[in-house]
Design a protein that fits this description.
The chain is built from 13 helices and 15 strands. The protein is α/β, with parallel strands linked by helices.
């Protein structure tokens, strides 16, 4: 039996234990502590943002939630969100009582279509008498969105942008890192992301003052008083010192992980270049530098002779984990009553798209195994 090839496993640097041991030796095993502070500084240095503007949290979802709270989004408001994404991009909108307004993707990056974004803004103003409160574009699968166009529209209508950079740590657009364009941005360190803290995330803020407010909300919003007093509703969202220790160790291999995933993507493209009816999510121009968190393919069954689902099942039989592309949010039952502005781009991508194994530990022979299944289906040797 062939060993299992997983979609995206975590890879340790070997230095994580040092920081975890320090936490145990000093009894800093509870939330907060020197590892949390150190991890935040490491992230700030990597992204090139102002010191004191990143807050380590329990998840990327928590980061989105606290950003929406600080942006004043509340019951009765609307938030524009990319439809083609994981549900965690949209769920926090519901947490604050607002309604998601979903916008479809464009075919170059698979991310929020700027033209449809402006159509949605104009139509929501016409129908509700007020503009949406926030815009949430997603850098899907590590591919930067068209941030120049999105930011131009957002600034023209004076709507703040909250970037979902959960999948795009290390990706760049025009030499600038994803997660540094909007007013806020969320990062994720789940077990399958570019680096992991076991589970965790972070909020990138525009100012140290906003970061301080994020920390306030993330630690149950306790007022400055000798007793427990609360004037705001708070949350238990802070990252633990143990998890942050894992993150500090992971920072040593972040660049290696980016290179490995880009290498995997290049190997897949080279070995599958002669397969007709199969295409990849690729950087549209040199201005885009995806981290290729996951290598994604599109299968045209009218040419290949097989569907995405048939290939996925064949991979499963070969003990290889793959995954369909995200099912768009406007097709999800939980968001059935939400407005959608689209042209079926994301629906077609969902129908035909598949994510291939892409982890940093993937070996060349693993990639060759994956490729062999595809070539067997197409009868290409």
């Amino acid at each position: 039996m062939n060993n299992k090839i997983w979609l995206s496993l975590a890879h340790m640097s070997g230095r994580e234990q040092k920081y975890i041991k320090e936490a145990f030796d000093t009894n800093w095993v509870v939330p907060l502590g020197p590892n949390v502070d150190g991890f935040e500084r490491d992230l700030e240095k990597f992204l090139g943002v102002e010191q004191g503007t990143i807050v380590a949290l329990s998840s990327g979802t928590a980061a989105l939630h606290l950003a929406l709270v600080q942006l004043g989004v509340e019951l009765g408001d609307e938030v524009i969100c990319q439809s083609f994404t994981f549900s965690a991009s949209a769920n926090p909108i519901k947490y604050v009582g607002a309604k998601p307004v979903f916008v479809d993707s464009e075919s170059d990056t698979w991310n929020m279509d700027p033209d449809l974004l402006e159509i949605a803004i104009k139509d929501r103003i016409k129908k509700t008498g007020k503009k949406p409160k926030t815009i949430i574009p997603v850098h899907l699968y590590g591919m930067p969105a068209k941030m120049d166009e999105i930011m131009y529209i957002a600034n023209r209508y004076e709507i703040p942008v909250l970037e979902d950079a959960a999948e795009s740590l290390g990706a760049q657009y025009k030499g600038k890192y994803c997660g540094t364009f909007g007013h806020f941005a969320c990062l994720s360190f789940n077990g399958n992301k570019m680096i992991t803290t076991s589970g965790g995330g972070a909020l990138v803020c525009s100012t140290p003052e906003e970061a301080a407010m994020t920390r306030f909300y993330a630690t149950q919003a306790r007022d400055k008083a000798p007793h427990y007093q609360h004037s705001k509703v708070g949350y238990n969202y802070r990252m633990s010192n143990i998890c942050a220790g894992i993150g500090r160790g992971q920072m040593f291999v972040l660049e290696d992980h980016i290179k490995a995933r880009r290498r995997n993507h290049a190997l897949y493209r080279e070995q599958l270049k002669n397969v007709e009816g199969l295409s990849f999510l690729v950087d549209p121009t040199p201005e885009y530098q995806s981290n290729h968190w996951l290598t994604c393919i599109i299968i045209d069954p009218s040419i290949t002779g097989f569907t995405r689902e048939e290939l996925r099942m064949k991979m499963e039989e070969a003990n290889i984990e793959t995954r369909p592309l995200w099912k768009p949010m406007h097709l999800q039952p939980v968001f059935a009553d939400c407005p959608f502005y689209g042209n079926t781009t994301s629906e077609k991508l969902f129908e035909k798209g598949l994510c291939l194994p892409s982890g940093p530990d993937l070996r060349q022979d693993d990639i060759e195994r994956v490729v062999s299944v595809i070539k067997e289906k197409t009868y290409i040797q």
